Structures are given as C-alpha cells and as structure tokens.
Amino acid sequence: MSMMSVHRDTRGDETPLAERIMSEAVRQGEVAGWQSVRLTEVAARLELPMSAVLAEYRDLDAVANAWFLRGWQAMLDESPAGFAGWPERARLEHCLLAWFGAFSAHRRVTVEMLCHKAHPPHLHTWVPMIFDLSRTIQWLREAARLQARYGSRRAQIEEVALTALFVATLAVWARDDSHDQAPTRRFLAKRLSRGEGLMKWVPGARSRREPRQ
Fold first, then answer.
1. N or C: which end of the chain has fewer CB within 10 A?
2. Which Gene3D superfamilies does the record associate with it (predicted)?
C-alpha cells in the first residue's frame, strides 16, 4: 500500500482531510517512530489549525484506529471469482493475508501502533483493543463466509481458535521483513492446515448448507 503524497499547498488536494492527517501521521511515524508523532506537528506540516485536526481525531490513538480500519476493509473487499466455493481454510487464508497485506508497506509503524496501545501505562487503550480484536475476528468470519451461526457452540470455538491464530500470525508478521511476507504465509498455511484437521471433530463441521453468495 503506497502512501499518498502530502503537499504543503493543499488547496487543490481533494483527498479527505481525515485521510491526509492520517497519512501525514504515518509518514512522520515512519521517520521518527510512532511514539514520537505529535498531532501539533502533523497540523503544522499540513498548514492546518489544531482545531481542524481535533475535528477529525481526538488523539493519536484515534488516528491508529482509523489506520486499522483499513485491515477490515481489505478483508471485506470484493472477493475473487468462485470464492464462496473455496474450502474454509482457503477463504480464511485469503482474508487474513488481505489484512496483513493492507499494512505490509508500513509494517514497522503498524507494529509500533499496536505496541503503543498495549503499553502497560496506557490502560485506557487496553479494553478498546480487546474489543477491536474481537471485532476483527467477527469481520474475519463474515469475510471468510463461515457458516456457523453467531453464538452457536461451533462459532464460539471458531472465534477462540481464530483469535489464537490471528495473534500468533501477527507475532510472526511483526518480525517478517521479507518483501513477499513468505515466512508469514508459510506459518499461516501450516497453522490453518493443522486447525482444519482439528475442526473436523467439532460439532457442526459437516454443514449441508450451501455457502452464502
């Protein structure tokens, strides 16, 4: 994912203001580290009053939340032809790689955002982060078109398993500086293959319903 160019003269820039603020914050994070980003400096770079930045983002954590929304959007983007007929394992792999791929060009600063949220003194970001992880897994199940009904025993088991898978893959991806994310792909494929065998023993595995279109 390439960064949008940010020009000091933004009068002819039709990019939404929120997007320009986020892009500049990420650019500064790439240069100096996410913890060093200051919204006052972002405003100065874009020649904006701080009130304009505040109207879009209440703080830097809100910028990070907007950034991570891209991962959900990538998972839910238009699916390849015949996607509904793919095995569950292949659909999950496609959606998870879409999430990681959305941030691959800015992996380091993305990892720094997550570390900043999980930093012990930042208690105000812990609970929202847990809920955001839960939402990520829910959107993953939707994007991958898993059939188990929400709240069913199988869905609950899937959520626990997918949460563990996502966190484990994230740990690998955080250290993966390859240009094609090959280590992350191998790890994910191996874990999904192992999980596919285990999930066959979970009630509801042999659903007769057709995949949702």
1. C
2. Tetracycline Repressor, domain 2 (1.10.357.10)
